[in-house]
Each structure stands twice: as structure tokens, then as C-alpha cells.
Amino acid sequence: MYAMCKELHPPTGVEHSLYCHFFKMQQSNLVVAGANQLHVYRLNQVSESKASANEKATAGEAKKMKLECMASFPLFGCVQSMQSVNLVGSSRDSLLLSFRDAKLSVVEYDPSTNGLKTLSLHFFEDEELKDGLIGSYHVPTVRIDPDGRCAVMLIYGTRLIVLPFRKDVAAEEIDSVGAGRSPVMSSYMIDMRNLDEQITNIIDFQFLHGYYEPTLFILYEPLQSWAGRVAARMDTCCIVAISLNIREKVHPIIWSVSNLPFDCLQAMTVPKPIGGALVFATNSLLYLNQSFPPYGVSLNSFPDNSTQFPLKVQEGVRISLDCAQAAFISSERLVLSLKGGELYVLTLLVDGMRSVREFHLDKAAASVLTTCVCACGDGNLYLGSRLGNSLLLRYNEKVQEKPQKEKPFEQELQQESKKNEPPSKKKRLDTMGDWMASDVNEVQDPEELEVYGAAEAQTGNQLTQYTFEVCDSILNIGPCGGVQMGEPAFLSEEFQNNLDPDIELVSTSGHGKNGAISILQRTIRPQVVTTFELPGCYDMWTVIGVSPPKVQESENEEEKLPSPANSHAFLIMSREDSSMILQTGHEINELDQSGFLTDTPTIFAGNMGDNKYIVQVCGTEVRLLRGVELLQTIPFDSSSPLVHATLADPYLVVATDSGQLVLLVLSCESGDSPAKLTTISPNIEAVSNVWAMCAYRDTGGLFTTIAMANEPEAVLAPAPMTPTKQRDTKTEGETENSVVDDVEEMLYGDAPAFATSSQEGANEEEVNKSAGSSSAEKTSGENGKPTYWLAISRDDGSLEICSLPAFSLCFVTKNFASGARLLSDNDFLTSGQESQGEEQPPNQEVKELLLVGLGSKNSRPHLLVRLNDELIIYEAFSFCGHSAEGHLRLRFSKVPLNLLLREKKTSKSRKKAEVDQKALFSDQVKRLRHFEDIAGYTGIFVSGFYPHWLFMSARGVLRAHPMGIDGSITCFSSFNNVNCPKGFLYFNRQGELRIAVLPTHLSYDATWPVRKVPLRCTPHFICYHMDSKTYAVVTSIPEMCNRSVKMVGEEKEVETFERDERFIYPTLDKFSVQLFSPVSWEPIPNTKIQLEDWEHATCLKNVTLSSDATVSGVKGYLAVGTNICYGDEVSCRGRILLFDVIEVVPEPGQPLTKNKIKIVYDEEQKGPVTSITHVSGKLLAAVGQKIYMWELTGDQLVARAFIDTQMYIHQTIGLKGFVLIADIAKSISVYRYQDETKTLSLLSRDIKPLEVFGIEYIIDNTQLGFLATDSQCNIFLYMYQPEARESFGGQRLVRRADFHVGSRVVSMFRVRCKIKDPSTEKKSSSSVEKKHVTYYASLDGSLGYLLPMAEKTYRRLLMMQNALVIHLPHNAGLNPRSYRMVKSQQRLLQNQSRNILDGDLLWKFLHLSMNERVELCRKIGTTSDQILDDLQEADRQTANF
Fold first, then answer.
1. Which helix (H) or strand (E) holds 409?
2. How wide is the angle at C-alpha 326 spanned by C-alphas 322 and 330, nearest 5°?
């Protein structure tokens, strides 16, 4: 059996973060890494007040920041450690990334390609360095010297790699030598066991500040101890400081301290002027400095008995630093985030000698459970998390006379009361856009941040008070512990009877107070308002009309809702030989009498002059209207009719079929002269015909032809706006022509000399001003006027960008239709020696072009190109490398969205189908439709065979969501109407016009549309109950526990302990089962079942058992298995609980109370119940080391069979009469139940040890495979093949395939492949109907699938995969082939099976240019179309949710 594994949803957890100059030295960025993803964010300021005067007034105060994602880089490896350094001669910071087992990559942003370039690679995975270990338990950790002289990396726990950086090279020498001398010098190794003191078991190491040579502070434990051995061995930790003399390669120990507490966790060095280091222990905090005696405090009462190190008592504090994260926010202050999410501000109080004499700790807030903390410039703090949403906080200092404190529980009560208010009363909180209430806009999560009054820090006699507030949050759906499929609560009835089941995914997310349920849908399901049958329409536009004057209407007027602002007044539809005009108000009526032209098809319609006027473009004329009143008609020659039109207010550009361009400029009404369009024919020689064109209005300032004064290299941040002295085209009393001429002169230099010189002066002034301001405060081009541009694709394959209205050429690229990864400006002077030199690929024709500004303040221009059957998306980025005068200072890089939008090829009657398609999809129809405000989102709708929505919000990530539920879509338009506010219209393949809105209960600014429901407790299991369409969720809340259970004779006795007030009591998880309704995602009242104290729920399943009460003979129950664990001295017991969800009459005003839980069975078992499933209508449970089969008769379980098994079974899955079971250490086994003989027997098992995390079946027609995932992030495919020699007659399962996923997978589920393709009417063949796709969800928040493949397809794609490994440059120099090899902690006595394709790598084929594709396919003897068809088939078969 062969399969393909592909990640559908990237990991969302965050493990590392740092703040550095990633793009350029003038701008700081936040770089975060989680699993195999690297993201770079920019902090943007959001002005809360509209008026600029207020803004200036509050400039001194804290401004709110939002995170905008500027770049994302997927890696073939999980980042283990990350640091940044500024290398000599570089105008930006480089990143050092370490990967398992001992790899280090030095990477940097490449301004010429807008990508990541690798500066150096370091690889230390030698067998002799591993000391005989197979797998390394030690994380390769990187540290950077604060002065940037060297970096060190600890590998295999015992060896330090030193990476010296060149510091003495003058900048000009680098320029002259080029890459001759690398800034990273050759590395060398120090074996820590060969130093003067033998250093082993290193806990942490850091560079000290303020030393002449790089000095390393190492915390280690030579003889290890633990809490149970403290009586015999305590104070086992030591520190040493090593001075690194890099030139001589000698490293003397200059300072050491021993007998530190045994529970030391991590070290942090204190910056200058204080110096020294802080050592965090679980229960104490120490400050060490070479010049002063050590100072330490105890944070609770444990150190009284566990250490002899002299510690003072820290008054008023009872905390533990286990799992704490910290970051310095100033030289003497740091923020601590504890494992419960509490934020403390720690101040080091120093005396005149700069020695720390006291610590001041104060609780400031309670926030997310963090994995990393990072101070982001002035007053911002980033908290990265694997267990909840990552937050950007703003902290403020206030100096006050006396502190004010608020009791935390009062604050919590206020928060709770707020939480219980109805959604309509909730205040809108922009800060938490990822948590959903009933609407995306009414969002509140009480637990993002709780403020506990003042965090005080004493400085002199004043008290400095800290306040924290949330500025922004980044969604995290991990860790996905359990994932279930269920039916969505809302689905328009038009889509109810689809062939494929309509399902959504529900996952448990988070832990503790960050616990939540995440509801995920991969595709968009519109909410249909109404449907009309309108055959024959192939294109449509909605336009905004004149707002009518208020007129008193009849008495039914108050029933009508007021029209929303900017509502669409007319819907213009184009047919083969006519146009249809509909007036859209409270009702939709056809207009018979109007100024619109109706007897020929319309090519384009839109609004001009700030939506005051309407322009209609037909084949032979252009009409300008105000409402229905015709203002102007401009006729065109009927021998060469108009074919293209594009609008960038106030410019309208039309093109005739002979390639002639005409510019129409709108001059608004002024005084008594009416508004009119002025025609300008540009004097450009039409070299070749126009394929497609698009006008663009740039407000972000990236489109500029002026080189920036202080920029030697390219930058990504938008450049300041070109201060062109363009007069506003709406100036009163001025004719349009003179305006245009003025603009032309000012922009393009026919003007007298003084004008241009003053312009340059203004520009320099602007540049200097912006360079002086902080990067975050720079709002892109807000103060500059917009500039206008026209992108033209010609039939010789070139792309030109001209300025409007002068039509001067500012950017040319050849062979545009080949889809190169980078579009750079081939200056037209050098067109003789074609710089790209690529041949024009066959049959590629640019059908459509769209240049549009997306993202925050439209500052991210994207160029969308539709070729024959493919969509390519480019993003513009600033590049100042070329010197051509008057040319745009930018390039375009390809966005790796890799969408497959082609029509599914069918072999029979293909010709006929093609004819039908041509009739449906006219090439003249624009399939790329930009929309401004549909349900509050901005983006592009891609209609066609496989429709997609592209969204980009202020977050700055382009999201692509398919909408295949209604098949192919021929045309689309946004529609803002009183009955359909912020909605849209579209025509499907059947010629039905649907008026629809986007469902608002999901957030679309995520990789998949998502809704996250906060639970404020840890979710463990989730299960969908099919009969009642509700979800059961097992959750737990930690409670303080001071009791323990002992056996006295036969009786259990509970003993209660009392300790002093500084003692931290342990917590006990209190479990409960609760039903949730998928309609509102609220818990159903009176359906909570509380488990006993010390009782843990170990499994939750929806089991189908035999029953006489139903027609089908089976009935669904909820089964819960528990384990009652009192400790070591009392033997474990467990319970099996069976629930039935029954329907009752709901209580008045509470519709959710229609469901109740009825307990069918509840009995204690002889051992812990660890897993439950159903087989052939019987209940199967793992109790201790046995498996039992029961039959439900009445309210009793009658035993039918049992068998002895391995150590601890934690998952079981039934299929017909077979059971697949997972053991925690002994791999997987397959059992078989035979009903006629009532026997349960072992069929086959895997004899190799394996720490199994998750199991599932994989089904391909008649073949059945067994999947297992393990603790090393691998996935294995086993098969039962008794005829194979290595299976010993079927006793052993044969491992047929293996693959390294890179994330820990605990939850898998399978569903039938999708059999209907949106692009065709036919359903797939019967072989697809009997094939299942198996999905997995990981603890990093990633989702992916395994799809069985036919051998022929597998072989073809395997050759392509091998070609791609060699052909593509990979980020950070990582090798995909080695990343996908199985990782193991012990030597495996068998070869790797592989046989699973890497879908992530294969999808990069779509990112190649056409010529590269043809070249690669020629090497492996296939065609590009064949590979694309294979990938598309896999993509469509797995588009289930």
C-alpha cells in the first residue's frame, strides 16, 4: 500500500520569539518560530482617535500596537533554538536556527528576492560525538555573545561548538572582496568534560555582560539528585564562568560557585550596568556576581527543608518558578510569567556599589500560559504560547504617591458577570478577534488578561506602578488532543442534499484556563438569503446609486429598515445580446426606462467620483450617469469595439480589440458645469496587442520611482509616499485637460527646473523625517496623495506598468506568462539582451490581470494573474537595486498559495464538455473580483471551476478558502443591501442567481475558517452523539488538595494535612462530563455529570450497541471509562458509565434544555478502565491488562469474552469484527471477535517495541492498513499479510510504510474520499467511493491527511519528489529527504520502508515557473499536465470539510 502525507493546516503554537532588525536596521521586527514555521511580524500603530489633533495630543501616551505578518517561511525541520546577531557589513540582523540533532543554519532576509537566504550551514552529527547514543535527548541550544563576537551551541549535552564572528573587516573590504571572506569564521569544539572541572549535566548556559572577552556562565549539576533523595544529597548544583579566548582557543575558568539548591532550572544574565546573573530554582531565586557574595530568597516554604544555601524569606510571595519564562524590560526590571499564567514584575534593588541587596516581586496580571516571553521595543511585551493564543501586551509605568490594590477575586467576579451578559450587551473588543461570541464583532474572552491592581516597583521613595493591557492576539488551535467530526448546525437548505456528507471538525484546544473548543471548517458555506432562476446571464456588476432625498412615504414606511451606507442601488447584468438593469432597494425590480444602455451587452460598470456617478462601458460607447439620469455618452468606432475596461477613480482606461488604449478622466461638477469624462488618447506605440490590463490606485506608497536617500539596499516596509505636486482633480473652475497636463509635467519632468528641484528637496525632507520616526509609528503613505498606475499584459508575453495619466513606462518584465518566481524590471533599454532569457512557454496566455492593494491601509499591493487554467499571485516588495531613471523601485515575488483551480478532466465526451464550458465561462468575464466589505472583510473572490475566497486583513496574511459547496461559479459581485447587508451575489453553473451572506459565527482571518469557544478548564475528550446532534466534552479543573488516602485494614481512610501559610499544596484534577449544543456552543443546562474525587476520565466514545428498542437494531450511547487512583498504597479501580441522551420538553425560554442525560449503566470494575470501543454491537473495554467484551441487555452488561494483553492499552478502535489496540510501550495488535463462538482471539501484532500515541485504519478499496504514530513524531503503516515471509504466517504485522511528520499526533480519524468535484457535474468512479482518507491532528495545532495512492501514481510522483529535492533551494539549507526519515531512540534492526510521499514538497511543484515544470517533467519522462492532474485529484478527494 502506498500513500501521500500532506499538512493542510500549519502549526499554530509558538515556542521561540525574539525582537530584531530582520528586514533593515531602521525597523525592528518580531520573529516567532513554532514547530516547522517561522513568522516575521511588524508592529503597526493603530490610532484610536480619528482626528489628527487628538493624535498629536496623545502622542506622548502609549499607542496601541497591532501585529502585521510580513513574511512566513515553512522549514523542513522543527526549530529547536533561535537567536539573532548583526554580522559585520550586513545592513540587517541574521538568524541562527538550530535543528535536531546537531544542525545550525545562519540565515538572513534577502532583499532581492523577498525570501530567506542561507549564509552558512554547520553540521555536527558525527557518530563519535554521540558517545554511542542513538537518539539525542539534548536540545541543540544556541546562545549569542551580547557584543556579537561569537555564538555557542551546546550539542549532545557535553560539547560546546564555538562560532566566532569576524569583527575587524572594514565595510569597503567586504564590498571589494565580495563573498570571499565570510563574516562567520570556522567553528571549533570544546569538550566540557575535559576542562579543569569536569562539567556534565548542563542545565543552562548564558553569556555574561560587561566582560572584556566573551564569558560563558554555565549552570550544571555534576552529581544529580531529586526531591526523593534530598535527605541524602542536597545542594548539588554548581556554576562556572568560562572566558573564551577565541584567537588562542583557550578557555580558563574564571569563577565558580558550588552547593546551589538542587532544583535550579535556568539562568538569566543581568545586563549592564548591574551585571551578574540570576538563577531561577523551582522554589528560590538567586543573584550571583563575581564581585559580590551571592544573594538569594526563598519563594515558598519548601527550601526550609531542601537546601542549606543561605536564603532570605521573600515576604508576601508564595510562588514556584517551575516552567516560568522571563524577559528583561529594562536593566533592573524583568517580567516573569509563571506556569499558571500569572505575570509578575521583578525589580532588582541595588545599593551604591551596584550590588543587588533586595528583590521586589509584584503580581501585575494573569494571562496566557507562556512558552516564551519577549520584550518588543518600547513598552510592548510578547507572550508566545503553545497552549493558548499568543498575546501582544502593552505595559505602562505610572509614578504614584500611594499604591492602589484591587482584590483579584473581585476583579474575577466582575469578569464573570460580564461573561454571563447576553452577547448583544457585550462591548466590542478589537483586541481579541480570535475568540467568537455569536458574531465575530461581539467578542470577549475574560481570560486573555486579568489585571491585579498595581505592580509596584520601589525606586527611591516613589512607587512605580505597572499596568498591562492586551493589544493583539494570534490564534492558536493547538494542542489538538481530540478531534471529532460533526454536522454543522447551520446549513442553507439549498445544500442539504449533496452527495458528500457535510461535516465540520471540532477539536479540544489549550490547557487549564486557556482550555477551549475549536470549530474548524475548511470550505466556506454561504448562508443563502434567496435564489432566482435567471438563465443566460454571464456577467454582472453592482453599483452604488445617488442617496435619494428623504420623502415622506406611506404608513408602511416604518416597517422598512433604513438602507445601509454605500448600499448598492443597481444590479447590471450582461447577456449575449442585451443588458438587464435591476433596481435593488427593499425589493428587486427591473428598470425599463433609464439612462443605461440595454440593447447590447455590458463590458464593465462601476462607480466614479467617490460613488456619486456610475459609468457603463459597452462595445461601442461609454455612458456616465448620476443615478438613472444620463449625463454623457462617448461613442467609439464600431469597427474596433471596446473589449477591456478598468477603473481607478478618477481614471477609466478602455482598450479596443485592435490594442488601442484610451484614457477617460472624470471631472466632477463644479459650479454650473456638469460632471463629464474627458478622453485622452495616449501616444504610446502599440508594440503588440493587449491581453489584459488593470488600473491601480496606490495609497500605500510602495509604488514610487524615486530612490530613497538613506536606502542602500531594498526594504520591505512601504517607502514614504512620493510627494508629487499633483493638484486634486476635483479643483473648482479648472478644466480637466489643464489638470492632466500639470500632473504630467510635475511627474515626468517637462516642467521648468525649479519644480523638479523643489520636488527632490521635499522628497529628501520626507525621507529624513520618516527615517527619524520609529518604525512602528510610520504610517505608510498616509500624508501623501494617491498615485495611479496601469498594468498591461501584452501578447508578446510582457508585463508593463505605466503611470497614469502620462502613460510613461515604469516597469517592464519579459516572459511574464511563464509564471517566474520573481518579476524584476527588465529595463527597456536592455531589451536586446533579454535578461531573463527564458523562452515563452507553449499555450500560456494571460486571461486576466488584477493589481490590488490589500492588508493594513491597503499597503500590500498584490498582482493576480489568471493564465489558461491557473492563478498566480505576486506580492510587490520594495527593491532599490537598479538605477534606471523614472522606473519603479520594486519587484514582485510569487506568493506560495499553490491553488489548484483547474477543471477536472473527463476522458469521454471531452470535446462536447469543452464546448459547453466555453458557453458558460466566457474569456471576457472577469473571474477575479475585488471586494471591499463583505461581512467586514476585504479581499478577492476567484470564480470559475473551483471557486475560492482570498482574504487579507490588517494581520497581513493572504488566506485562501475554497467554496466548492455550490459547484462552479460563473460570476460574482458584492452586494450591500437593506435585506442582505454586506453580502454578495453569484451565479452557479445552473444559471441560478443566489443572494447570500457570509456566516458571521466564524473568523475567516485564519488558515481555516474557525471559531474558538473558551471553556476556562482543560478539555480532555470530545465526542459527537449522532442521534441527538450534541457534543459531550470531558473537562477537568484543578483544585487545591491537602488530603491523602491510606488503607487501614480493608477500609480506606482519608487523612488531612495542615502546613504553614507559605506551603504550596498540590492540586487534584476534578473531572466532569458536559453536553454542548453546536448551535450556540453553550453548555446545555442540567447535563453536567461530576466524577468523584481522585477519579480520572480516561476515555469517551460514542458506542453503537445492539438494542431491541430501535428499528435498525442498534442504538448510540455515550460511554465513559474512568480510573480511580488514590496513590501508591491503594490498588486502582475504575468505572464504566453508559449514558443515553434523551429528548424532553424544553423549559420555557431555554430551548437548549430539550436534551437530558440518562444514566443507563454505572458500575465499578476490577481494575482501571483505560479504553472503550464497540465491535459488532458489543462493548469492548480494556480493564487493567485484560480486554473484556460485554453485551448490553436491559440495564446490565453481560460478559461475553475476555483475553489477556500487554502492559497498558490506551486506545482501541473497532471495525466490523476486528479491533485495533494501541499499547503504551508494546506497539499495536489486531484482535478478532467471532460472534457465533463468542471468542476473542489475537490475529496479529507488531513485535517491535513502540511508544504508540495514536492509531487508525487506512482503507483503499479491498486493502486494509493499520496506522500508528509514536512519541518521536513518526507515522507507521502496518499490514496483515500472512503470505509474506517476514510475517511468520500472519503472526506479525508487516511494516509497509513509514514517515516523519514532525509533530506529535495523538488524534486521527477517517472519512470517505469526496466523490463529487465542484468543477464537474459527474461523480467520481467507484474506486474513489470505497477509498477513505485518514486525517490527523497534532499537538502543535497542525492538521494533515494520509491518502492511499495507486502504485502508478505513486511511482510518478516519487520521481518528481526526488527531482524537487535537488532542484529547489530549501529554506535554511534543510534537506526534506532527511527530515522525512523515521527518527528513533533505539537502533532499529530493519531498513526504512518509506512508501509515503511528502505532499508538502510535491505541492512546491506549483510554485515553479512553467519552464522549470516542463524541464523537470522532461527529466522524469512525464508531462506537467499529468503531474498537475495527480496533485489536483489528491486535493479534490480530500476537500471534505
1. helix 408-419
2. 150
